[in-house]
C-alpha cells in the first residue's frame, strides 16, 4: 500500500502543479538583454516562444501525472485485494467497512474515475488535473486522517 500511496501522491502533486501553472501565468520580462535591440517582431516571437514553452510544460506535467497515477493505481488495487484476503484469514471477513477500508475504497474510486475520464472521455488538462488534485486530499484523509478517529481495526495510530 505504501508504494501505491507514494506514486498516487506524486501523480496528484503533479496535478496540483498543473493547476498552479494555470493559475499563476509566466510573467513577461520587461527588461531587454543588454546589447540586443528587439523590434516588435522579435518581441512577439519571444512571447510566442514563452507561450509555446509554457504549453509544452503543461502538456508534459499533465502526461507525467497521468502516467504516474496509472502506475500507482494497480498497486492500490493489489493492496486492497490482498488486504481483504488477509482480513478473511485473520478475522473471518473480507470486508468489515472499517473507516480505513472505506477510505481506501473511496481513494480507489477517485482514481478509477480519473483514469476512466482520461481513457474513455478524453479528459486532459484542467479537468483531469482537478480530479487528480482531489485524489491528493483523499489519500491524505485515508493515510493520516482515519487514524485520528480512534475507531476500528486500523486505529493503530491513535494516541488518546
Give your account of this protein's structure:
GO terms for molecular function: heme binding. Residues 1-154 form the Cytochrome c assembly protein domain. It is found in: Membrane. The protein is mainly α and 160 residues long. It has one domain (2-28, 41-148). Helices cover 71% and strands 0% of the residues. It is elongated and about 55 Å long. It starts with a helix and ends in a 17-residue tail after the last helix. The mean pLDDT is 81.
Net shape: elongated
Subunit arrangement of the protein: single chain
- Average per-residue pLDDT, rounded, comes to 81
* N-to-C span: 26 Å
Assess the beta-strand content as a share of residues: under 5%
Order of helices and strands: HHHH
Unreliable runs, pLDDT <50, ≥5 residues? none
Q: Structural class, please? A: mainly alpha
The radius of gyration over CA amounts to 22 Å
Walk me through the topology.
Elements: H1 2-23, H2 40-91, H3 99-119, H4 126-143
Helix pairs in contact: 1-2, 1-4, 2-3, 3-4
Write a brief caption for the model.
This protein is mainly alpha-helical and 160 residues long. The chain is built from 4 helices and no strands.
Amino acid at each position: 500500500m505504501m508504494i501505491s500511496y507514494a506514486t498516487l501522491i506524486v501523480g496528484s502533486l503533479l496535478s496540483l502543479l498543473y493547476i498552479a501553472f494555470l493559475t499563476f501565468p509566466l510573467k513577461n520580462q520587461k527588461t531587454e538583454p543588454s546589447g540586443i535591440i528587439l523590434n516588435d517582431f522579435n518581441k512577439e516571437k519571444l512571447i510566442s516562444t514563452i507561450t509555446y514553452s509554457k504549453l509544452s510544460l503543461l502538456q508534459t506535467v499533465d502526461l507525467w501525472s497521468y502516467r504516474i497515477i496509472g502506475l500507482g493505481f494497480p498497486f492500490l488495487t493489489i493492496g486492497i485485494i490482498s488486504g481483504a484476503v488477509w482480513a478473511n484469514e485473520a478475522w473471518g471477513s473480507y470486508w468489515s467497512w472499517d473507516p480505513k477500508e472505506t477510505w481506501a475504497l473511496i481513494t480507489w474510486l477517485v482514481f478509477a474515475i480519473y483514469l476512466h475520464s482520461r481513457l474513455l472521455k478524453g479528459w486532459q488538462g484542467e479537468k483531469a488535473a482537478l480530479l487528480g488534485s482531489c485524489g491528493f486530499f483523499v489519500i491524505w484523509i485515508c493515510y493520516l486522517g482515519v487514524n485520528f478517529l480512534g475507531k476500528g481495526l486500523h486505529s493503530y495510530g491513535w494516541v488518546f
